[in-house]
Amino acid sequence: MAKIKIGINLEFVRHADKSFEWGAKKAAEIGYRYIEPCFLMGTCLLSNAGYCHLQSLDTDPEYFKDFCREQKLKISGVSSHSDLLDTRIGVEYARQGIMYARALADRGLFDTVPVVQICETMYPPKWMKSKEAYAVMKMNLRPIMECCEDNGVYLGVEPHGPYTSHAKSMLRILELNDSPWLRVNFDTGNSYLSGEDPYEFLRAVKDKLVHLHAKDITVAQSDAERGKVAGTAVGCACGDGVIDWAKIAKICRPLKRDLIFSVECGTVEQAERSLKHLQGVLKA
After folding, report:
1. Long-range pairs of 85-89 with CB within 8 A, sequence gap ≥ 24
2. Which regions of the chain are under pLDDT 50?
3. Whose CA is closest to 2, among 238, 230, 256, 215?
């Protein structure tokens, strides 16, 4: 029986133009014990100035160890959103994220085996047909999965593109490499917006589930975009939208490994209400 915990993606402070430190402290103040930071290669001017939550993979992992321990926070996953269809930097970005996750794990910042999130591009080039897309993803997955195996880090492929956001094609992607480190970071909102039944999709990949983005979708966004897009950056407060969280929890409960629901919403107020709602669902 899985023990389900609640965390939050730092995207909830993006529109507030706040820093990683501000967002992480706010998450701890609200009551979250797990955060999901987003990392990029190189540096970001806005982040350096304190107006953006993104963090650089060049940051000394010791900094995160000291900061997170001070705030009594753990990390649920490293959001190093590399692109499975990118032959230029897709592999290197993923590899750097994997090795950084290992460094954070070595410093005790994960309660479970470390996870790195990855997706395939939302906008593949027009010339790329499905046969070519799967060939590129298979080629890119090989060095990525070798890095996962070397470092003991799971790769969580996320529904957030024309291939990953549909159950049938996601299952095909999971068959492109036989590594046990290839898993799924399920996104409730993205799968719903793609036109899929998110509960059936989750059941189809639950044996590979390693992390879950708890993203709810408003009725208005559903009416405007469902079946037309492959995902969205953040959702509304959990409990305010179309996702049945009791049903999601019921599907996840029988799993034999612990799981973190990482909330993806757009404001501090939504983060507060999401935590309260999910705590009520899990308690029930």
Report:
1. 85/120, 85/121, 85/124, 85/128, 85/133, 85/136, 85/137, 85/140, 85/161, 86/121, 86/140, 87/136, 87/139, 87/140, 89/41
2. none
3. 256
* In the block, residue with structure tokens 């996104």: 187
Closest residue by Cα to residue 107 from 47, 170, 61: 61
pLDDT tens-digit readout, 199-218: 999 999 999 999 999 999 99
Task: Classify residue 278 as left (phi > 0), alpha (psi -120 to 50) or beta.
Answer: alpha
Question: What are the residues facing 262 on neighbouring strands?
Answer: 7, 213
40, 78 contact by CB (below 8 A): no
What residue numbers bound the domain in which 128 lies?
4-283
Going by DSSP bridges, is the β-strand pair 182-187/209-214 parallel, antiparallel, or unpaired?
Answer: parallel
Structure tokens at 33: 């014990």
Nearest to 134 by CA among 88, 171, 185, 187: 171
pLDDT of residue 12: 97
DSSP state letter for 53: -
pLDDT at 149: 98
Ordered alpha helix ranges (H), the chain: 20-30, 45-48, 61-71, 90-106, 130-151, 167-174, 188-193, 198-205, 219-225, 245-252, 268-283
Task: Give the CATH number for residue 90.
Answer: 3.20.20.150
Model pLDDT, residue 212 = 98
* Beta-ladder partners of 82: 118
pTM as predicted: 0.97
Quote the number of domains for the chain: 1
